[in-house]
Amino acid sequence: MTTPEEAARLDAEDELAAFRDRFVPITDESVVAYLDGNSLGRPLRATADRLREVVAEQWGARLIRSWEERWLELPERIGDELGRVALGAAPGQTIVADSTSVCLYKVLRAAVALRPGRDELVTDTANFPTDRFLVDSVGAELGLTVRWIEGPDDVAAVAGPRTAAVVLSHVDYRSAAIADLAGITRVVHERGGLTVWDLCHSVGSIPVALDADGADFAVGCTYKFLNAGPGAPAFLYVNARHHEAFGQPITGWMGAADTFGMAERYVPAPGIRRALSGTPPVLGMVGVQEGVALLAEAGIERVRAKAVALGRWVLDLADEWLVPLGFTVASPREDARRGGHVTLRHPDAERLSRVLIDNGVLIDFRRPDGIRIGLSPLTTGFTEVRAAMERIRELAG
Amino acid sequence: MTTPEEAARLDAEDELAAFRDRFVPITDESVVAYLDGNSLGRPLRATADRLREVVAEQWGARLIRSWEERWLELPERIGDELGRVALGAAPGQTIVADSTSVCLYKVLRAAVALRPGRDELVTDTANFPTDRFLVDSVGAELGLTVRWIEGPDDVAAVAGPRTAAVVLSHVDYRSAAIADLAGITRVVHERGGLTVWDLCHSVGSIPVALDADGADFAVGCTYKFLNAGPGAPAFLYVNARHHEAFGQPITGWMGAADTFGMAERYVPAPGIRRALSGTPPVLGMVGVQEGVALLAEAGIERVRAKAVALGRWVLDLADEWLVPLGFTVASPREDARRGGHVTLRHPDAERLSRVLIDNGVLIDFRRPDGIRIGLSPLTTGFTEVRAAMERIRELAG
């Protein structure tokens, strides 16, 4: 069942198909399929329009007055909405700010400070470089030992009375394997430690239930499945139960209790706001706001259902066309364990990726031998995916 | 000589007058004068146009390919140009990234790490809150003592063999007093310490000569005199002589030697690039690029000359109209010691500021009693300033 008719049938039944028109069209006719929305989501038309409006009407006309009128609250306002729509987070626990790296540094430092006397950090060797680098360098900076594990499943074996924090990605950036956020968090808590979840590859793609699952800290980017734009601000979540006690080291004026009070000493703002440092990046947040609004309209459950269907479709096509050519499937075949992309391995993946990109199949190469096929349910269709897979078959054959 | 004719003469002789047309017009007719460009510079028309272009053509059409084609280099490319046009910095020492707070945290940590065994930081009590907060909290974090001084002139009295770093603003955010960057840096170096200069209120307003003056580290924002937009990315300078040895604690993938190598351990990129952490904020950088380009066209020396003339004009008008009403001048009267704004003190400044803003005179209130009159040479004219001062006289009279 990998026929063009089947693709057409899947497209016809796709409840989210019309959302594609909400995006700026790809005018480059050489593009067969954009399958890298998990690296950089496409721009919404609304973002382009709102940017124009914010520049002309808010920045250009209201000028400095826009800060008090609306901009100052944006980190929390957009954060709350993101929490509601995508993270399962009640208001007051999520802010939009900085980059993922900076957010991760802040919450990692915050987590360690909440567990004095514990001298170990845990992360896995397959984690994204930034996460590994930060665990390593924060560990070195604070005199903690890093316990490296091979994957999230190994947490139970190493977490113990010395564990300060466990830092994991919810969805593996290479394999798309989904970690058991609830179960791992429970185990870490039983041992007295805290969890820091990197949601970069899950936010906007699969439902997350941070409050219900008892998560402590989380961070993520907005430029993948939220389509917020290249280098758009990241987000950071701190569970309300830590608000009284948590702190972070980058103590700028925006995180102070009275930002314009110009106080003699830093007094942290109550709640999540103390996680802020510098002036909020207003233009960058426009894309976040629009991306979250579109997701609210589509609904994360429908997005997830389509991501699963697209993933299955890629696996079916791969099994029929590509496995015979030497490809192997690196992503979990079980739907419930697979995130929003499918990774195929091939011995010649690096060269082949360049050929594919030159031929309009915009996938992503991930070392050492992965071709990552990103599936963005709001912009990707089944016929399009089939055309791309056909092209891969031709070019790899 | 505070007549309308004199204002008209000054405007007629103003070589930079035409630059005003390069900005998005203020459509709000209630605005008498925008004198808060030192909090938030106005948007350039070019920024509005380029944002549209970047969204549609780079992000929307080239999609992920834009990262390799052009975006990855932006932090250094714009940084180099900013260094050339405004900072007196040779290429390879300046990057555009993060917020000022995050940049300051990074360079402060870097500076301290370069001076092991020294256990004091120096800053002044009049410094901007973020700077004071960060000196305080980084000091506490690393077990250093903070030596508080009353102003930059007191550095010589306290800097000594225990001084790791001296953190100062080049232009005081309240009084606009210019610190002796070259002289203070020399003194600190004689005592074996390092300098961290906050250029927020000087960049794009007065020429800075970081290389010639031997500065070690500097940071600054781009949303004031560079007109880059609300919360636009900040910049960070590290003198080349520190490139071999310096490090910073937020070790994200963009600061690694091989960003896409996904290496096992963090190996810092050579040179200034190791100061990067997360993914560069592309949309935010558009405004920086355009702001720097316009400054290059105008020339920082001409901008400075006009800022001085505007400052003198404000002082003349204040002396004639406002001093008799109870105002005092809080900024240096000597041109060479005064930055790009003039601050007037008034016992009732807080209430009066609100009245002024409600009446279209967009100034800035700074506690406890300062009314800050920002002078942006690329957008501000002499007749406009006169009208604003006249309005202040009426409303305070």
Protein described:
The structure is a homodimer of 397-residue chains. With 397 residues, chain A is α/β, with parallel strands linked by helices. Chain A has 2 domains: 4-44 and 299-396, Aspartate Aminotransferase, domain 1 (Alpha-Beta Complex), CATH 3.90.1150.10; 70-297, 3-Layer(aba) Sandwich (Aspartate Aminotransferase, domain 2), CATH 3.40.640.10. Chain A is built from 12 helices and 13 strands. The first copy, chain A, has helices at 4-12, 45-62, 65-69, 74-87, 100-113, 129-142, 155-158, 181-190, 282-298, 300-322, 349-358, 382-396, and strands spanning 33-34, 94-97, 120-124, 145-149, 163-169, 194-198, 217-220, 234-238, 328-329, 341-345, 361-362, 364-366, 370-374. In chain A, the strands form 3 sheets. The first copy, chain A, has a 7-stranded mixed sheet with strand order 2-8-7-6-5-3-4, with helices on both faces. A 4-stranded antiparallel sheet of chain A has the order 9-10-13-12, covered by helices on one side. In chain A, strands 1-11 form a two-stranded parallel sheet. In chain A, α2 crosses α9 (282-298), α4 (74-87) runs parallel beside α9 and α10 (300-322) runs parallel beside α12 (382-396). Chains A and B meet through α2, α3, α5, α6 and α9 of A and α2, α3, α5, α6 and α9 of B.
